[in-house]
Amino acid sequence: MTAAAIAGCATSGDSSPRQEKFSNLLVIGIAGTWDSRAQFERSVVSQLGAAGIGARSYIRIAGGPKAPTRDDVLAVIAEYDFDAVLVTRVLDTASSAAERSTTASAKVTRKDSGFMKLFRYDYEEINDPAGLEVNMEVEFMTELYSAASEELVWSSQTKAPKSDSVAILVDESAKLVVRKVRRSGKLAR
Questions:
Q1: In-domain check, residue 189
Q2: Of 31, 47, 106, 120, whose CA is between 20 and 30 Å from 137?
Q3: Angle (nearest 5°) at CA 186 between 185 and 189
């Protein structure tokens, strides 16, 4: 919904008749949790910076967990003179969990009392341990908007590889976004 408010009506693909190149991007991530969104934006900004492309995170500028509105984004663009906005939003998430058996383990308890502290440890065996394997997937849409024309100039839909860690999934998704937007030819080097 936020992306729609930012974009108005937009189409997919390259909708710009001229080949604009962008060098100062506002990065916006739209996700379910503020922590994931902040991590994603920081990761994208860092990777773009490493490639010599100027970028700033919306969260770093605006602060707080509030989702951006069109007016908020336009105000930030005007204040920081961004030439493009890179918006990535989550389209779908899926997770699965499976129980797997693991080896028996022992719980060790240290004891500091008793006759000359001869037997300092108790070992309690834990039988029938179970492990839980969780896999998460995310599908997301990335859109690049020209700040001057307020039009969509590039978009891509991507599915990130499965991961058992939200942090790793967010970082891998950010890498995919940066790789695809760099390959688009829309960024000035």
A1: no
A2: 47
A3: 80
In the numeric block, the tokens 């080949």 are attached to 19
Contact 141, 177 (CB under 8 A): no
Residue 117 lies in a domain: yes
Phi, psi of 150 (to 5 degrees): 60, 30
**81: which residues sit within 8 A by CB, 6+ positions away?**
24
Shared domain check, 71 and 59: yes
Residue that the structure tokens 């949790």 belong to = 33
Give the pLDDT of the chain (189 residues) as one tens digit per residue.
344 444 433 334 444 445 789 999 999 998 878 888 999 999 999 999 999 999 999 999 988 888 889 999 999 999 999 999 999 998 988 878 777 666 655 565 666 665 555 555 555 555 555 666 778 888 999 999 999 999 999 999 999 888 888 888 899 999 999 999 999 999 987
79 with 141, same domain: the answer is yes
Q: How many domains is the chain built from?
A: 2
